[in-house]
Each structure stands twice: as C-alpha cells, then as structure tokens.
Amino acid sequence: MTVTINDDLWSAIGDPTRRRLVDLLLATGAGTATSLSEQLPVTRQAVAKHLGVLDRVGLVHATPSGREKRYQVDEAQLARAVAQLNAVGDAWDARLRRIKRIAEAIQKST
Amino acid sequence: MTVTINDDLWSAIGDPTRRRLVDLLLATGAGTATSLSEQLPVTRQAVAKHLGVLDRVGLVHATPSGREKRYQVDEAQLARAVAQLNAVGDAWDARLRRIKRIAEAIQKST
DNA sequence: ACATCAAGCAACCGATGGTTGCGCTTCCCT
DNA sequence: AGGGAAGCGCAACCATCGGTTGCTTGATGT
Hints:
Chain A is mainly α. Chain A has a single domain (7-109), classed as Arc Repressor Mutant, subunit A, CATH 1.10.10. Chain A contains 5 helices and 2 strands; from the N terminus they run ααααββα. Chain A has helices at 7-14, 16-28, 33-37, 44-56, 75-109; strands at 60-65, 68-73. Chain A has a two-stranded antiparallel sheet with strand order 1-2. The longest helix of chain A is centred in the last third of the chain and has 35 residues, at 75-109. The A-B interface holds A 2-3, 7, 10-11, 14-16, 19-20, 22-23, 26-27, 75, 78-79, 81-82, 85-86, 88-89, 91-93, 95-96, 99-100 and B 2-3, 7, 10-11, 14-16, 19-20, 22-23, 26-27, 75, 78-79, 81-82, 85-86, 88-89, 91-93, 95-96, 99-100. The first copy, chain A, binds a DNA duplex through helix 4.
C-alpha cells in the first residue's frame, strides 16, 4: 500500500537549503531574502528563488513592507508537510517491523 | 536548534521516483532494474541510475546473480532514514506547537 | 551454436540550484 | 531636498540531475 503524497510539497522540503530556510524562519519568526541569505552559505538570489518555490507550494507567505518583503511560515501548510513526512516514515517503519517479524518466524521454524 | 541530518540520505529519498522504488522493493522483497522499471512510468536506465544513488547512500544493496543484479533494501539504513524523517518532523511540530502556545498567550493577554 | 534477455555505456535534452552583473525603487541622512 | 545606500527583481550563464534513445557486451537457455 503506497502512501499517496503530494510530490510538490515533498520536493519543496526535499532540498536541504529550503529545509534550512524553513528552520530559520521558524526560529526567527520572519525574514527577508537578504537577512536569510546572511545566515546561509548561498547568495541572496538563490534564497529568493527558494522562497519563490516555498511560496508557490504555500509553505511560506510574503508580506511586502516598503522596500522589504518579509516572509513567514504558513503553519497550516507546514503541519500538512509534517503529516506527510510522518505518513511515509510510518509506512516504511511498519514494513520494516513486518519484515523483521517474518524473518524471526522463519528463523524459529528452522 | 536545527536538526543535524545527513543531506545525502535525505535527498536520496527526496526524489519521488526513488521513494516509489523503495516502496516497490519493500513490497516485493527484491528486484532488478528491469523488473522494477516495468512497474514504473520510467525507463530501465532511469531506474538503474536511481538504484545507483540509492546504493551509494547505502539504502539498497545489490547482489549480482548471473546476468541479473538483484537489489534489496538495507533495513538498517532505511531505519536510519526514517529516524531522520521523524526527527525533522518532530522538530517542526514542536516549533509549531510552541508558536501556537505563544499566540494563544498573547491573545489571552489582550 | 545462436537467439535472447539483462545490464552497461554514451550522448543528448530540459529543469533546477547556484552564481555574477545590472537596473530600479525605497529609504534615510546630512 | 538631494544623493548614496539598501533591498529587490531580472537576465545570462554554468553544472548537475532526472530522463530519454541507441548501441554494445555478457550470461542463459534451448
């Protein structure tokens, strides 16, 4: 039984830089492309692109304020993403436990 | 507190096709590039490449047998990957709950 | 012995993560 | 009020990656 997941959402958080971006936004509450890029080993433009894809999948949400553009995490969408992570993790975990159980049963019967 | 994770392992399971590959291998126990490609919407060569990266990060393990090359999941490594999924999920979940708690406290105090 | 099936190269293509460089708007400071 | 600095957006470019097609090579089974 394959877990049905939204590939867009998953691959959004599949990128390590974007994951760190989400981490930073969660830690500081909000940030701009420039402020975030100062705490990451990539340029502002790269951060801006990542914020773009995070925005597109709804994980993050921007509010322009003068010459700045503050981003912050969309909590509901992030919760959905976490749920998907858990779903896949649980499914694989169940498979692993089942395999182990069968393996033990075989071992016992020999 | 950022969760320390192995980016290689994560981005290995970040790709949707590779995730389905792992699913298939878990479901059927083992498979070759050819047999797996028959159950996926991609060519054998694409599957072979994916099996290559899964092999490189140790999520999967090949045993050549004649002209075939049977792959199967490395359970220990997959367990480690699942643990990382859970770690990130838990960290974000904790953050979300904390934000919600603070938000409620602020609301109450106004 | 020979056709067949599985795997391995190699070249190519589009998308993506990253960079540099430039221009434009908004702010702030004297 | 004017002008430099700050922040953003756009464009071109490059390397890597997921995917394809085409061909070769090696084991299998009649």
